[in-house]
Amino acid sequence: MSVVTIAREGEIAVVAVNNPPVNALGQMLRQGLWDAVDALDADPSVRAVVLICEGRTFIAGADVTEFGKPPVPPHLPDLVDCIEGAAKPWVAAIHGSALGGGFEIAMGCRFRIALDGASVGLPEVGLGIVPGASGTVRTPRLAGVEAAVELVTSGKPVKAAKAAALGLVDAVITGDLRTEAISFARAALERPLPLPISRRPVEVPEPEFWERQEKAISKRARGEAAPLRALACLRKAVEADFSDAMAFERATFLELRSSEQAAALRHVFFAERAAGRPSHLAAAEPLPIRLAGVVGGGTMGAGIAVALSDAGLPVVLVERDGEAVEKGLSNIRNVYDGAVKRGRMTPDTAAERLSRVTGTTDYAALADADLVIEAVFEEIGVKRAVFAELGRICRPDAVLATNTSYLDPRLIAEGLPNPERFIGLHFFSPANVMKLLEIVPVPETAPAVVATGFALGRMLGKIPVQAGICEGFIGNRILKRYRASAEALVRLGVAIEAIDAAMRAYGFAMGPFEAQDLGGLDIAFLQREGARAAGQDVPETLGDILVRAGRKGQKTGGGWYDYAPGDRTPQPSTVVTDLLSSQINGKSAMCAEKIAECLVGEMAEEGAAILSEGVARQAFDIDLVEIHGYGFPRWRGGPMFATRSK
């Protein structure tokens, strides 16, 4: 079957693309569109052409199976030029997503219309490259420089209504796309045609504009190359003629395509694609989830309830007493109020999602739940008591999950009836924002229940990763090694602020000590104290010394750093220097690159141990955990990728 077919509706030709699953721009599709231009230009009965796609989306971008392979003609830039230079005007009829090369194809058309639920974008910076087929050159001519900078350097798509407001599409429709596109094309023939985008003028911004954008993007990118290179392409598009700007864009694209950052981002792209549907669960059918319960309405429980409600699920929140129920519902309400205040959600949407959550003290309200997630205090006795109630009340086939971060799920589930339906689902705080979900089965967990965990991750828009049972699972185990290694450098005389600065330079938003101050040093301290109380031999850390001195982080005005009242800016602390002086041997002037190399190497070594023990199934799972749960710079690919043998 051909991936491109042509039908005729009177004087309008309809070119239909059918290259499932996402109509990717492989060589056969490019050739088919090229041939369609030639055929329709030669047909005197055709006055205009509608380009439309079958399936769930418009052309959603490049064919990922061609990544890393030599390009085969017709090349995409030539195809876009070919469509733009066609003797008959083309109308792109967009549904689903027109992304990357798909949107560049649409910009080669004389007109673009979109269904109201569609989106358009140029996400190439997310793969470490820039658009390579006129995205940086045509976009400012179509929508202006400011809109082009936001679209291209962020890589974030925009919905149809915003695309229309920016001038990226000519009309937004709600009816039948094919019918409306044909009508639009007929009407367009009755008016003077607009200039092809390549011939449209572009307004030159004031000189300070580029400097402002460069500063803002540098801060956001934190070492990622592609956003700034995309900005340079956009500037060239404004300051040079079309052909020179195209040559500059293409050269930049080809240079970045072979870069280490692009290789890392491709690695993450493919890892994320594989994460949601792991091959070892291909034969397992997930159980349906229609009603969810959450036990515990604190920060974590409230975030989980919000994530479930955001996915369209009704949620029952159970707490120990009426006051705690009200507090839990208030925590949820505060999340939605904040989203409205920041303009991320309308008041009506927030009210609708809040209405899906009901609070109660009665476990009987969970009798019909398909899934219940426990998110109470991290103490084994408290959690066991919760599961005793759930085992008594819930259906035998209901999935029962614990959100523990450190405790052994096997101990939590002791005595639970039908243990095959029990699983660990480790969310990260804030649970409605963080994308990582560690899925931790116990030996009795049924494959269908594990598959249900992955299905839940997809439903919530998260990156699910299966982890085996050990202290801290994958992420917190590596975090413990990372922090211990950072403390080891301090003991050798490397300055705390130098370590944090080195990891920021590597691409982290915060260094290890700044991050501990933000989250609170007492959290890990209490976990260590609990292990000591249980008879485990846990060496004293430098953080323990600080906590015992009352320094728990920003919330107490001091942790590894000092903080002025109302100011979160970390300041080096003479108090910390005095407290730790007996633990520090000498003074080291290790450079930033060596500090980062050391700490990332320690993370990777722990990852290798995790892999060899079977706690992680594959190396890229470890990379995904670190990127989505712990802020490892995406463009580095994760610790396992970053330290692989080149």
Automatic annotation (TrEMBL):
Protein's GO biological process: fatty acid beta-oxidation
Pathway connected to this protein: Lipid metabolism; fatty acid beta-oxidation
Gene Ontology molecular functions: (3S)-3-hydroxyacyl-CoA dehydrogenase (NAD+) activity; enoyl-CoA hydratase activity; isomerase activity; NAD+ binding
Listed EC numbers: 1.1.1.35
Swiss-Prot/TrEMBL catalytic activity: a (3S)-3-hydroxyacyl-CoA + NAD(+) = a 3-oxoacyl-CoA + NADH + H(+)
A Pfam family of this chain: 3HCDH
Segments forming domain 3-hydroxyacyl-CoA dehydrogenase NAD binding: 293-467
Keyword Nucleus in record: no
The 3-hydroxyacyl-CoA dehydrogenase C-terminal domain, residue ranges: 472-563
Name this protein carries in UniProt: 3-hydroxyacyl-CoA dehydrogenase
